[in-house]
Amino acid sequence: MLSYQHAYHAGNFADVHKHLTLYAVIDYLLRKKSSITYIDTHAGRGLYPLNAQETQRLQEYREGIWPVWQARAELSNELVSAWRAALVSAQPMPEAFTHYPGSPWWLSHSLREQDQLRLFELHPGEHEQLNAQELSPHAQRVFGDGLAGLSAMLPAVTPRLCVVIDPSYEIKAEYQDVAETVVYTLEKARHGVVLIWYPLLPAGHHRTLLSSLKESGIRKIWRSELLLRKPGEQDHGMFGSGMLVINPPWGLDKRLSAAMAEITPLLGADSHYQADWWVGE
Ligand code: SAM
Predict the structure, then answer these.
(1) CA pair distance 44, 4, nearest whole angstrom
(2) How many domains does the chain have?
(3) Whose C-alpha lies nearest to ligand 1, atom 20?
(4) Edge-to-edge strands, sheet with 139-143
(5) Which residue in 166, 177, 235, 270 is the catalytic one?
(6) Residues 158/37, Cβ–Cβ less than 8 Å
(7) Distances (CA, A) of 130 to 107, 125, 133, 183, 185
(8) What pLDDT, on the 0 to 100 scale, is given for residue 236?
(9) For residue range 148-187, what is the model confidence (pLDDT) as tens digits?
């Protein structure tokens, strides 16, 4: 039984980190004409009204997208500015910031004629909400398990592949399941670009994912982490957001680090960004 609903967390600091990274990766991929298959294994609803009851309950966006949005006049980084302009285009009324777009929106809004997008979602209610979103005609929504769905689509029919894996990690075994699926994915699509999100929690479960990937022999794994609080400050709850990008486009690391240097101080006095190669070339 799935209980996680992303609407409770929409627009939080982890979404900022995750979707800015995704936006930058897509921006690089679009520089070449050859077609791309995008697979989003854990899609969620696609678009989140900030005034929804669920989102209002925790208002996590106030420590995430809100301060970034408010800082518009101070933003000078080219990537952050382009990302912010894309956020504007997600708004039903451009002059008001009322909706936060999820990964299906970010993937769908730049989809070209030659590309395809598959969005997996296993929660019946979330899938229904995703079905109600206006997305590209090339976006296909599937009610089903994302990791199994990804494996079944390999090798991709297009020359290029980009996968987003963003589970809720409600079950501890998901860290290992993700690692195994990623190993299989890279066996079938050696040059595929794979983005994996993970939470930084006091229990440190993400280490299972990281060490399994390191031991697998996969090369070119870039790691980026945004910490909202110092580790150990609280004995429960997420203190940071982690992203792995396997086969990142050339230049992504420096470009994102520059963008995050602008965003991170907006998220609070203790916020901190760090990035390195978890596994090099
Ligand atoms: N990727 C989304 C975004 O960035 O907007 C947020 C996804 S949310 C963190 C995780 C989603 O995965 C939830 O909507 C949950 O219902 C869904 N989910 C959980 N287990 C799943 C599975 N095995 N296959 C597909 N979706 C699953």
Answers:
(1) 10
(2) 1
(3) 122
(4) 139-143, 116-121, 36-40, 160-165, 193-200, 240-246, 221-227, 272-279
(5) 166
(6) yes
(7) 13, 9, 5, 28, 25
(8) 80
(9) 999 999 999 999 999 999 999 999 999 999 999 999 999 9
Q: And the tokens for 83?
A: 């990302």
1 domain-assigned: no
Check residue 279 and give its pLDDT. Answer: 98
Q: Which atom belonging to ligand 1 lies closest to the Cα atom of 105?
A: 5
CA of 75 to the centre of ligand 1 (A): 31
217 is known to lie in a ligand binding site:
no
Q: Judge whether 81 is annotated as a binding position.
A: no
Kindly list the protein residues whose Cβ atom lies closer than 6 A to any atom of ligand 1: 2, 4, 6, 18, 41-44, 102-103, 120-123, 126, 145-146, 166-168
Closest Cα to atom 1 of ligand 1: 43
Residue 153 lies in a domain: yes
* Per-residue pLDDT reduced to its tens digit, 88-108: 999 998 779 999 999 999 999
Q: What's the confidence (pLDDT) of residue 74?
A: 87
**CATH code for the domain of 30:** 3.40.50.150
Please list the ranges in the chain whose pLDDT falls under 50.
none
ipTM here = 0.99
166 is catalytic: yes
* 3-state SS, residue 165: strand
**3-state SS class at 51:** coil
Nearest to 108 by CA among 147, 145, 81, 134: 134
> How far does the centroid of ligand 1 lie from the alpha carbon of residue 277, in Å?
26
- Answer yes or no: pTM beyond 0.80: yes
* Tokens describing residue 109: 């809004």
| Cα 163 to ligand 1 centroid, rounded to whole Å | 14
User: Is 12 contained in some domain?
Assistant: yes
